[in-house]
Design goal:
This protein is mostly beta strands and 186 residues long. 11% of the residues lie in helices and 32% in strands. The chain has helices at residues 3-17, 153-157, and strands at 37-43, 63-71, 76-84, 98-102, 111-115, 119-120, 124-132, 140-141, 144-145, 162-166, 176-179. The strands form three sheets. The chain has a five-stranded antiparallel sheet with strand order 1-2-3-7-6, with helices on one face. A four-stranded antiparallel sheet has the order 5-4-10-11, with no helix packed on it. Strands 8-9 form a two-stranded antiparallel sheet.
Length: 186
């Protein structure tokens, strides 16, 4: 077995074991248990931009790892989010401060999915689980939530058109950010 294949298998086991049902088993409420695509994103402070797409470096020394598994047929996204060196309280006009946004690298865009904020301390925070669409972010413009009508196949069709991040009171544009441009394991 090639090293990359072993690493991918171990990453998938790690990702799957973090989800409800344990030991990689799917929750019974989902139609099927497979990922059409998985993403392993390293998020850094130097990728953060403002809503005008101007660089706005996030928290110095902070780092994030956002792992996602997507099942399109069930409209389920499973997540394993870890943050290191993130300090202070979360802040966002959305219902949470941890999201997938729709925008290419270096640009800002609306959140499409809001995840539970990672919990822990200033050294390490984590959040793991699965969400099933329809997705709501809490950002409403003209009576429409920015998650309304969003489906996971849009990420698979153009992963480079999406980024993930977390926001705090001190770093409102974001503490860390990373693009979903690379798929792994599928």
């Amino acid at each position: 077995m090639k090293f990359a294949t072993i690493a991918t298998a171990l990453s998938l086991l790690s990702l799957a074991s973090a989800f409800p049902g344990g030991r990689g088993k799917a929750p019974s409420k989902y139609d099927s248990w497979f990922f059409d695509a998985t993403y392993d994103v390293i998020a850094t402070p130097n990728q953060v931009v403002t809503n005008t797409s101007m660089p706005a470096p996030g928290e110095p020394g902070a780092k994030g790892r956002f792992r996602y598994g997507i099942n399109v047929a069930s409209q389920v996204i499973c997540y394993n989010i870890e943050l290191w060196g993130v300090t202070g309280d979360y802040q966002s006009p959305a219902k949470t401060a941890t999201h997938i946004h729709e925008a290419v690298k270096g640009k800002s865009g609306p959140p499409r999915i809001a995840f539970p904020n990672p919990v822990g301390n200033d050294k390490y925070r984590k959040s793991r689980g699965c969400l099933k669409g329809p997705f709501k972010t809490g950002i409403v413009t003209n009576g429409v939530d920015s998650g309304d009508g969003f489906t996971l196949d849009k990420i698979i069709a153009n992963p480079a058109g999406f980024f993930t991040d977390s926001h705090t009171k001190k770093f409102v544009p974001g503490v860390v950010r990373g693009q979903l441009s690379k798929r792994w394991g599928c």
